[in-house]
Design goal:
Layout lengths: L7 E7 L3 E8 L5 E7 L2 H14 L5 E6 L5 H5 L5 E6 L1 H9 L9 H15 L11 H34 L3 H4 L7 H9 L3 H6 L2 H10 L5 H13 L7 H38 L3 H5 L5 H12 L10 H7 L5 E5 L2 E5 L6 H14 L4 H12 L4 H22 L5 H11 L20 H4 L1
Parallel strand pairs: 1-4, 4-5
Antiparallel strand pairs: 1-2, 2-3, 6-7
Helix pairs in contact: 5-11, 5-13, 7-11, 11-13, 13-15, 14-17, 15-17, 16-17
């Protein structure tokens, strides 16, 4: 048995306002429990007292993720080594001793301390990213959250319009968060107000907001002319109008925030030393490039051995279950969903920009794979390429990779002629024959 690297081990189980602690002295095996407040001031006082009681001690602390405010606070103390673990790890460890699934914060702190005491060699050590990488990571995560809020508001707006003004779904376009839609509904929030407007005024509105298709304008004006209202009851319409205009103003604010996030992400991405690697990936662009960078980070020691570590961590690698004579393979469920989504979306986009990626997608679909299964397989292949470029700190070179495929006699080479950049190889029937 290897010697424990810590003099003091702490298991910390947090809640909104307090944290339960279990402290183990590895030399005497003496244990004690405590409860502290998680306010920054209380944490600071506790750490000061802890250092005075154990001067020079090597301290290991095990806690559950996510701990958004605790980890940044604790990582500033270089005498503490953090071991954040997946909540499922603690859950399974607890259920090994408590089959009833009863849960107690004090006991969970003890289980966390025991995990670190007995399995310290297998628990990953927290290694914070540098400031440049963390800036990109935080920005892309919060941008995604704001986009999700925009989607929720758009869905709410669609539900409201269907109840009293369904024609707006055609008059405003498909994306109700766009400036044209919100401006239209703030100006004409009901069918009655639209029908009072002169056709020339509607044409001018669409023209000023970038909708300049003559065919589309003609269709919309014809719809306004022949449309029949769901109801003419002003009491009903008035209440819906208030809510619709509220949601439209919220969407305008949210969209403004998305634009601000895009500007800050572009600046942080441009200043990052690894930008050239991810910017060289075909189809990455200003949105997916920073997201891929955020998924890998800048610390090459996170995935040092092979791309398989990255593939498992991001959830792109499948899971194999064998028992007796049966073998079952399925996609991975326990993983950082945002990272998996980033690689999945990039793989889907790369089909339009990269010839070998389009050929690989066509090959998978020809074998009978569904769209998302084929995209997942492509993401798995892309991760090996991206991991190699990332480890070597070299940009991706399309011609070099295609030459390697030809030299290896890859069957993808025979499909290159059936791929036309900018078009999906599967949706283009002429290319499938």
């Amino acid at each position: 048995m290897t010697a424990n690297p810590y003099d003091l081990i702490i298991g910390l189980d947090r809640s909104d306002r307090k944290a339960d602690l279990c402290l183990i002295d590895t030399h005497t095996d003496q244990r004690r429990t405590a409860v502290i407040d998680t306010a920054p001031e209380a944490l600071w006082e506790w750490l000061l007292e802890l250092r005075q009681q154990h001067p020079g001690a090597r301290v290991g602390l095990c806690l559950e993720q996510p701990a958004v405010h605790l980890i940044p606070f604790l990582e500033a103390y270089d005498w503490i080594t953090l071991h954040p673990i997946n909540p499922i790890s603690l859950q399974k460890y607890r259920e090994a001793f408590v089959t009833s699934r009863a849960k107690d914060d004090t006991k969970d702190a003890e289980y966390l301390a025991d995990l670190l005491l007995t399995h310290h060699a297998k628990l990953p050590v927290w290694a914070p990213e540098d400031s440049a990488t963390r800036a990109v990571q935080q920005l892309v995560v919060h941008r995604r959250a704001v986009v999700d809020e925009r989607t929720g508001l758009s869905n709410r707006l669609i539900a409201l319009l269907k109840q009293y003004f369904p024609q707006a779904l055609m008059l405003c376009g498909e994306d109700l968060w766009r400036p044209l839609a919100t401006a239209f509904l703030l100006k004409w929030p009901s069918l009655q107000t639209v029908q009072k407007a002169k056709p020339e005024r509607l044409k001018t509105f669409y023209h000023l907001h970038g909708s300049r298709s003559t065919r589309l304008q003609t269709e919309r004006l014809a719809l306004v002319a022949k449309a029949v209202a769901v109801t003419d009851e002003t009491a009903v319409i008035g209440s819906f109008v208030l809510r619709v205009q509220l949601v439209c103003r919220q969407l305008q604010l949210v969209q403004r925030s998305v634009t601000e996030f895009d500007q800050q992400i572009a600046a942080a991405y441009a200043a990052h030393p690894d930008r050239s690697i991810f910017a060289s990936l075909p189809g990455a662009g200003p949105v997916l490039g920073p997201r891929l960078l955020a998924s890998l980070g800048a610390n090459r020691e996170r995935f040092p051995e092979s791309a398989a570590q990255l593939q498992r961590y991001t959830g792109v690698a499948p899971v194999t279950k064998r028992s007796g004579g049966s073998c079952y393979i399925h996609r991975r469920y326990c993983c950082p969903k945002f990272h998996r989504q980033s690689f999945h979306e990039y793989a889907k986009e790369s089909v339009l920009w990269c010839r070998w990626a389009g050929a690989y997608y066509l090959q998978q679909r020809s074998k009978g794979s569904h769209h998302h299964t084929a995209v997942r397989a492509l993401a798995f292949k892309w991760q090996r390429v991206i991991w190699r470029c990332w480890q070597d700190r070299k940009p991706y070179e399309e011609t070099k990779y295609e030459a390697a495929l030809r030299k290896a006699g890859s069957p993808l080479v025979a499909l290159f002629d059936r791929v036309e950049l900018g078009k999906s190889p599967w949706k283009n029937p002429a290319k499938k024959n």
